[in-house]
Amino acid sequence: MHSKTDRSPLGQFEVTAQLLALIDGLSSEKQFILLKQLLGSNLSVHLMRIVIDMNESQRVELLKALEEGPAAEEGVTTISLDDSNNLMRGNERQACRIATRLKTAEGTHECTIVDISTFGVFVTSHTRHTTGKKIQLDFTLPDSKVPFSIEGKIVRSTPAGVGVRFQDLATGQFEAIKRYCEISTASSKPPDQNR
Predict the structure, then answer these.
(1) Which residues pair with 102 in a beta bridge?
(2) Is 168 helix (H, G, I), strand (E, B) or coil?
(3) 67 — alpha (psi -120 to 50), left (phi > 0) or beta?
């Protein structure tokens, strides 16, 4: 007899897929709380890894934002990263529908980017991909004729698609994506009724 904890590889895959789908459905606040609980006391190690994975432009923006933050830590629950020129504003995820080619060592797949930021994208895909896999994305931003070819790493895999973190994003690419996200965010806001 097999106990309930004995699982076949397929059963383990199903559990992982269910977990990823549930986590993806959580609000940002609940995802953050879960992340803090899972990381425990090793937050600085994980933050350092994220910083190392950033490109130079992202590091400079983060440095500026942290240096401009409050000097006293007492009573501080968040770091203010809400100024108009800062890293986090540039990293707001923007919903979109952008056709892309996702290239892996195994082949090329036609996919759709459904949200984008200067850190990465979420791409719908009918093909399952494993986390940690290096890929290349080829796409063109709406209202632009400049094609992008960006290398990235799959950091999240769900039944709906994959989350990709950009690697070695050129300064021009970073600025173009940031501009696209800011323009798209501004155009999606309702008009000011006080005008």
Answers:
(1) 109, 137
(2) coil
(3) alpha
Residue 193 in any domain: the answer is: no
pLDDT in tens, the chain (195 residues): 444 545 555 566 778 878 877 887 777 777 777 777 777 766 777 777 788 777 777 777 777 777 665 444 444 444 433 333 334 334 567 889 999 999 999 899 999 999 999 899 999 988 888 889 999 999 999 888 889 999 999 998 888 889 999 988 888 898 899 889 888 766 655 544 444
User: Are residue 182 and residue 100 in the same domain, yes or no?
Assistant: yes
| CA separation for the pair 115, 124 (Å, rounded) | 10
Q: How many CB atoms lie within 10 A of CB 125?
A: 20
Tokens of 26: 């959580």
Q: Which domain holds residue 83?
A: 11-70+79-89
Predicted TM-score (pTM) of this structure: 0.52
Confirm whether 3 is domain-assigned: no
